[in-house]
Amino acid sequence: MSDWAAVVVNYNSGALLERCVASVLADHSAGPVELVVVDNDSSDDSLATLARTHPEIVVLRPGKNLGYSRAANLGIAATRASLAAVLNPDLELAPGSAAALADRFAADAGLGAAGPRLTNPDGSTYPSARSMPRTSDAVVHGLLGRVRPSNPASRRYRQLDADPDVARPVDWVSGAAIWLRRTALDAVGGWDEGYFMYVEDVDLCWRLRRAGWGIAYEPGGQALHVQGVSTARHPYRMIIEHHRSLLRFARKRFRGPRSVMLVFAGPYLAFRAGVELVTHALGGRPDAPRVGG
Questions:
Q1: How many domains does the chain fold into?
Q2: Range of the domain at 31
Q3: Mean pLDDT of the chain
Q4: Is residue 138 situated within a structural domain?
C-alpha cells in the first residue's frame, strides 16, 4: 500500500490536468503515490491528453458533474493510504511537498488536515490558510474585500499579516490542495456532499475542529495554483453556487439562539450575489469571477 494518496478532481482543465498529474507523480519524497483522477463529466480534451502521457492513471468517470465534495469522497473511497491529498487540476506540486506534509502529520497525531503554501502565477503567495471570521468581519470582507482588500476585516480573515514562511495552526485551509488524515475524515463523515462548489473546505475544517482535530498550514509544501479554470466556463452559475454554499454553511454554523442571524444572512447574501453578478456582467470580461474571497 502506498504511503499517501492524491485525488485530483477534474473538470475541463485542458493541458493543466496533465501538468498537475506529472508534478504529483514526480514527487517521490513521501514514497510512491496512489493517484486517482475523478472527472466531473469534462467535455474538453483533458482526459485524452492525460491518457496519452499517463495511461496508467486510474480515472473515475461517474458520467455527470458531481461537484467537488462528492467527487472528492468518491476518489478518496477508491484509495487506501492513511493520508489523502485532494487537489485541483490547475495545481503544480513542488518537489518535496509530499514529505513536508507527511512529516507534519507524523509529528502531530491530532492533526486532521493540513495545506501547503499556494503561490500565484506571478510568484505571490495566495492566502490559502485563513481564520473563521467573526460575523462582523465576514460582512465587512464580503462588502469591501474587492474594493479595499487591505481593510482590517479582510486582513484578519485572510491572515495577511502572518508570515507565509512560518508553519502555524489555522482555522481552515483551501480545498485546492488539502492533505487529510483518513481516520479524521472518516470520523466526521467525509466531505459534505450538499455543497456543489465553494465553502466545502471551510465546512470540512470547521467540522474537524469541532471534533477535536487540528488544522495546519505547512509552507514546507508548495504548489503553483492557476485559479478559476473551471469557474470561467460558467461564471454566473458559479457566483450563485458560491452564495448558496455560504448560506448552507451559515445555516449549519448558526444554531440555537444564534439562528436569529439567518434572518439577516439570507438578504445579505442575496444582495452580495446580485452585486457580483451585475459587476461581472458590466465588466464584460470572459475571465472567471472572483468569488473565492
A1: 2
A2: 4-131+170-229
A3: 90
A4: no
Higher-confidence residue of 5 and 254: namely 5
Question: Residue 214: phi, psi to the nearest 5?
Answer: -90, 155
Q: What is the CA radius of gyration of the chain?
A: 18
Question: Highest mean pLDDT: which of 151-155, 242-246, 281-285?
Answer: 151-155
Q: What are the cell numbers at 251?
A: 445555516
Least confident among 150-154, 237-241, 262-266? 262-266
> How far apart are the C-alpha atoms of 4 and 33, rounded to whole Å?
5
CB-CB contact of 90 with 9 (8 Å): no
Maximum CA pair distance of the chain?
Answer: 57
Closest CA to 104 of 224, 216, 186: 216
pLDDT in tens, 90-129: 999 999 999 999 999 999 999 999 999 999 999 999 999 9
CA 90/CA 251 separation, integer angstroms: 31
For residue 48, the Cα-to-chain-centroid distance in whole angstroms is: 25
62 and 180 share a domain? yes
| Residue labelled with grid coordinates 506529472 | 22
Domain co-membership, 63 together with 175: yes
What is the CB-side half-sphere exposure of residue 205 using CA atoms within 13 A?
25
Cα–Cα distance for residue pair 159/223, rounded to 1 Å: 19
Beta bridge partners of 180: 84, 113
Claim to verify: residue 45 and residue 183 sit in the same structural domain: yes
- Closest C-alpha among 70, 96, 63, 86 to residue 7: 86
Torsion of CA 126, 128, 130, 135, to 10 degrees: 80
* pTM for this prediction: 0.90
240 shares its domain with 265: yes
Q: Which residue blocks in the chain are alpha helix, DSSP H?
A: 15-26, 46-53, 68-77, 97-107, 135-144, 152-158, 182-187, 200-210, 235-253, 262-283
pLDDT one-digit tens code per residue, 255-280: 777 777 776 767 777 667 676 767 76
